[in-house]
Design a protein that fits this description.
About 45% of the residues lie in helices and about 15% in strands. The chain is an alpha/beta fold and about 190 residues long. The chain has 2 domains: about 1-15 and about 70-190, 3-Layer(aba) Sandwich (Rossmann fold); about 15-70, no CATH class. The chain has a 6-stranded parallel beta sheet. Helix 1 (about 15-30) packs across helix 3 (about 50-70).
């Protein structure tokens, strides 16, 4: 099976770190309560920050967040089991777009951990084209907008949903997972 994976919120536990830094920035530096929708996965939709405030946050915190975000619990174990079973992984991520060094940081971590993937699509906002090109069997992502777009195009997806994020109705193209054990069970049962 060819498995497409996003990095942030799927391989790296960066979304929890992002939310922590976003709250600190919003409260301490913007002196306010600009939270508008806690169920949104990205700060651009979660807060009513101006473009300039968003740019300041991105420039100040993105790379630091990348460096301190651990791998998701269970990822390494499940990844190694699936590789041993003959599955392949294609990374399809927006990482490396705003801050190119975030891509380099991910590569460094993968090298340190001895992790490698069959193909990489960096700075990719439309994941559908990569999915089709690589003949991916299932895509794992944590952004409900990505999941909605892919599933509307008849792409099988695993929605790696954090408890705070928007719930989607499951169907033949959308299955919710909350950890790498759920992902392992889904792939073993296919």
């Amino acid at each position: 099976m060819v498995i497409g994976i996003d990095l942030d919120g799927v391989v790296f536990d960066s979304e929890n770190v992002f939310r922590t830094y976003e709250e600190i920035y919003d409260i301490e530096e913007l002196n306010g309560n600009n939270l508008i929708d806690r169920s949104e996965p990205k700060h651009s939709r979660r807060y009513n920050w101006t473009e300039e405030q968003t740019k300041v946050f991105r420039d100040k915190y993105y790379l630091e967040i990348s460096k301190v975000s651990p791998l998701m619990a269970g990822f390494e174990t499940v990844y190694k089991k699936l590789i041993e079973e003959g599955h392949t992984f294609v990374v399809i991520t927006a990482r490396g777009g705003w801050i190119p060094e975030m891509k380099d940081d991910a590569i460094r971590i993968f090298e340190e951990k001895g992790l490698s993937f069959d193909k990489y699509y960096w700075h990719t906002s439309d994941k559908l084209n990569a999915y089709i090109t690589e003949k991916v069997d299932v895509m794992i992502d944590d952004d409900y907008k990505v999941i909605e777009h892919l599933s509307k195009n008849k792409v099988k997806t695993l929605y790696f949903r954090d408890a705070n994020l928007k719930k989607l109705e499951e169907n033949e193209y959308v299955k919710e997972v909350n950890n790498w054990g759920d992902i392992y069970r889904y792939i073993k049962n296919r």
